[in-house]
Amino acid sequence: KKSIEFITIGCFVGVVSLIIYIYPVRSRIDIIRRMFLSFDRPEDRPHTLMWLSTQIAVGYLIIIPFIILFYKEGYNNLIFIPILINGIGDGLAEPVGIRFGKLKYKAYALFSKKKYVRTVEGSACVLITSIIVILLFKSSFTHPEFICALITIPIVMTLAEAVAPHTWDTPFLFFTGYSLIYLIKSISFI
After folding, report:
1. pLDDT tens for each residue of 29-53
2. Rounded distance, CA 114 to CA 110, Å?
3. Reduced to 3 states, what is the DSSP secondary structure of residue 137?
4. Assuming Cys at both sites, which of 24, 27, 51, 81 could form a disulfide with 167, CB separation 3.0 to 4.6 Å?
5. Percent of the chain having pLDDT more than 90?
6. How many angstroms separate the CA atoms of 14 and 74, rounded?
7. pLDDT by residue (tens digit) across 89-119?
8. HEC profile for 46-114?
9. Cα→Cα distances 16→9, 10, 19, 55, 61, Å
10. Those residues with Cβ within 8 angstroms of residue 25's Cβ, 6 or more apart along the chain or in another chain
């Protein structure tokens, strides 16, 4: 069983390790340049690193207190629900939206007045993934909690992804997901 200190140190190291992507490093080391190019979208320049590092840092600042709370309350396995929805659903949203997206809407980014295109088809990945993930975690809920989770979490997570600033979905999805799960587990169902 990992201690919260170990998890916190790992999160800190993860954020600090992004320093390898600064221009003086990536311009001299080909493998790091290639790694950077894998997530550097032309429309995100010159904010790519700032948006990535702040999204990750704030994501950790949200997830760590919820991990502590969920362990304290005995909801350990529920920690994975927002992580899976974010990783799979939001991870698929962009490629699906680019390939199949017809219904477009726009979202702002942090520190920018520019609007970025999103698609309903891409956001639907978050909805579908949320439904599947909740079904996979059915045994972690009582029957009334499960019904409530199945009805609310997919809709609320999809809306959170839809309104989150461009490239900053992770903190929004983590905060929304963990808060909603905690609320569902805290409500006394009759």
Report:
1. 999 989 888 877 777 788 787 777 8
2. 9
3. coil
4. 51
5. 49
6. 27
7. 988 988 899 899 899 988 887 777 778 888 9
8. CCHHHHHHHHHHHHHHHHHHHHHHHHHHCCHHHHHHHHHHHHHHHHHHHHHHHHHCCCEEEEEECCCCC
9. 10, 10, 6, 13, 14
10. 19, 32
